[in-house]
Amino acid sequence: MSPKKQPKKIPIEMVPAASVDDPLFTSEQLCSYLEISTRTLKRLTAKKALNFIRLSAGAYRFRKSAVEAFLGRRTVQAKGVAA
Predict the structure, then answer these.
(1) What H or E segment, with its residue span, contains residue 67?
(2) Which residue in 3, 32, 55, 57 is a FRET match for 77, CA 20 to 30 A apart?
(3) How buried is residue 58: exposed, middle or buried, by Cβ count under 10 Å (0-12/13-18/19+)?
(4) Which domain covers residue 43, as residue numbers?
(5) How many structural domains compose the chain?
(6) How do residues 37-76 score in pLDDT, each as one tens digit?
């Protein structure tokens, strides 16, 4: 009988608490805010296209500033229009 493998210890980093200026969204809140499905959000988190905080398996939080940065990266400028 082989000994049980111990799970890898992952250092816990301190995550600053949400502030009024940079609130945290739950997955459901973010889906509503962006008007996307939970499946689309799962794809974005799986691809790590959107920064998130993982609380536990399947429990994520998203900073408003990270969501705005994501949207900024995804914004396509129209031709002939200055930014």
Answers:
(1) helix 64-74
(2) 32
(3) exposed
(4) 24-74
(5) 1
(6) 999 999 999 999 999 998 888 889 999 999 999 998 988 8
